[in-house]
Amino acid sequence: MFVEGRKLVVYDKGRPEIRSRNNYFSDTKFDTFDKPVVLLVNGFSASASEIVSGALKHYKRATLIGEKTYGKGSVQVVFWVASTDFSCQLKLTIAKYYLPNDNCIHGVGIEPDMPVEPQEIQGWVFDEQGRLREAGILSAYVDKIMAEHREIAFELAANDYGDYTRYPDFELWADSVDTILDRDMLRYILHDELRRVVQDEKGKEFPCDPGSDVQLQKAIIELVRKTGRDPAQVEDIAPFVKIVKEREQAAVDEKRQRDKLFEDKPENAAD
Prior knowledge:
This protein is an alpha/beta fold. It is built from 8 helices and 7 strands; from the N terminus they run E-E-E-H-E-E-E-E-H-H-H-H-H-H-H.
């Protein structure tokens, strides 16, 4: 559906005397989707998803964004064990999968075209979220904006663009909260609470969180760029461009600071 014509997608092979090479090709019976494609991958992308992403990367049909995939490319068969009265099974690996470039993904995985690590949230942030939830501080504010700004609340729950200034009277509320969280982290846990309430009202879970998912933000920007547009000039995408640039600059500044600390470290200092 994504690769035009009949092309090799993957093949498997094992020991010659056990399993010869089997080729699998794209099927021409589908109408080919010819729009730009971006794939999100990480360490949980395994097996079939690795085959798809690896083949699309090989044919330059998609850009992979995220983290290295898991690396599961084995072919297995299941045998009933007669000596256990067929109460147990043995799963035996008989072959491995190979991409069109002859690379085996098993134990190796696939590197993304654009590496992007997910945002790391420290455990103490969630501890603080639990404390504020139990104290009713989060629910009080969520209930207030749901009652007074219902339409805005639903929009923020779907996507707040990682911007706490979009929340009505946020600064006033934040000033009243006794917490060690900064404004950005306070927005993070507030957004989580708001999404819970809105999902319950809608009876449906949000499929993603573009305001907090840094990998998704990068993917959206790249997808818009693939269409020939400048993401910074697209109203709904520009906030993501700002977020990504700030995050990338922060990472550069942090690396510089670490390097400086290492350079300034006395040679005889203990590790």
